[in-house]
Amino acid sequence: MNKNHNNTVQSLLREYFRSIGSKSYLVDILEERDYSYNDLFLKSFFIKSLLDSRISRGECIGLILTKPSLYMPSILACWQAGIFPAIIDNKISFDRLREIKSIVNFKYLLVDTELDGWENNNQIIIEDSEKEYEILSEIKIDIDENNQPSILFFSSGTTGIPKCVPLSLSNIVKNIQSFNTRLSIDVRPVYLCTSPLFYAHGLYNSFISALISGGQVLYGGVLNAFNAEKVLISSKLNHASIYHITPSMIPILTTIRKKTKEEMPNFDHIICGTSKLRLKDKLEFENIFSKKITQQYGMTESLFMTVNDDCQDKKPESVGRPINCVLKIIDNDGNDIKHGKNGNIVVKSESFFGEYYNQEDETNLAYDNGWFKTGDLGILDEEGYLIISGRKKEIIKKGGFNINPIEIDDVIRKYTDIIDAATVGVEDMKYGEEIYSFIIAKNFIDKEKLDSHLRNNLQPRSIPKKIFFLKKFPKSESGKILTSTLKKMAKELCM
To answer: How many CB atoms lie within 10 A of CB 463?
Structure first.
């Protein structure tokens, strides 16, 4: 891979178009089908022909796709047509779709399956066809790679209307190449992807990264407890070199390894991000698989911000040092905090577009003099390594005290036979908020002994008012626990 950050997507694709057209770009493990770069380019030319007659340059189109093989041809077709796609959840409700349309203002949806009940005249349907498409002389990107939005993602928030995040091609290339350089990822990496493709974690970390790097994607569908074993023991994974996973996937992999004794593919890099990784899960995984997890920190808004590429043993809880950005910790008044102290994580980077798309109020809340307020809490040590301590909006404000639910969860998990815990704050007339914890346990838990454990290890103000037992937590498709759902459950159970 050419590591010159000045390379444009257009120049990169021209090179791949000429040199590796016959090479495999995508292997769909579940469908047992391979797609070459030629397939990618030819399909993109065909989709562009569908767009040219309907949409003007500079406009936006919504993408709702079910087939993994159509994501990158559709995105590439949009870039060639001079328009930019908004990547939308393929399981979205029409009410939520109308909310998104009011933000993005797209005229058309590009779909591979007709949406019954939606405006028929506003759907452009990609039909499978075996006809020969015209091979153009080269890839021609018709958008401003520096200043024009190239793609829109929606943040995977668990409450409210998702924020619409614009990214430019220039910033995408810089961010991916900086990340690859830091981890010494070189020529044509092979990515395993087991995440939803309408989230940045799946589409950006694997498919778009492969496109920029001339690599290959092995797609195994969305990983869960039911299909994980089939995906992970597939012979197709023998050449996989990079696997981006979320913290919720790690216990699943560990369980499968204990059960099947099957060897994992020999990945060069197992990279974990999106939320705080529990140290216990990390160490257990690394012990069983004899493979280090590289932690990284990033968001839809910021892409890759840090990576712990050189200090996994010395600082196992750290998500690493900043990459392609400047990061600092501030207090609630905006003052810088000294190294080693907990506070609000803010970051400044050229990778940011600098605003949410058509959401001025959200932009004003998130940005302050060029600094992006992540909403996360953390500690930056004297060597520049970051430790994530929690999520600001999840801090429980009880009786004038700020209580971090992660600290409560960590104490609960240390009790025998506790598999997992999730603590939330619920509005309370007396204290402002009251604490409730949800627990998943292997076996019967003696409540009196658990209460004694909490009293011995927590401040009185941090002890949950009530504890509820669940078989599983409600989660988003990206694996995040839906705290809003837990709060509603706590309210209902306490009525």
So the answer is: 16
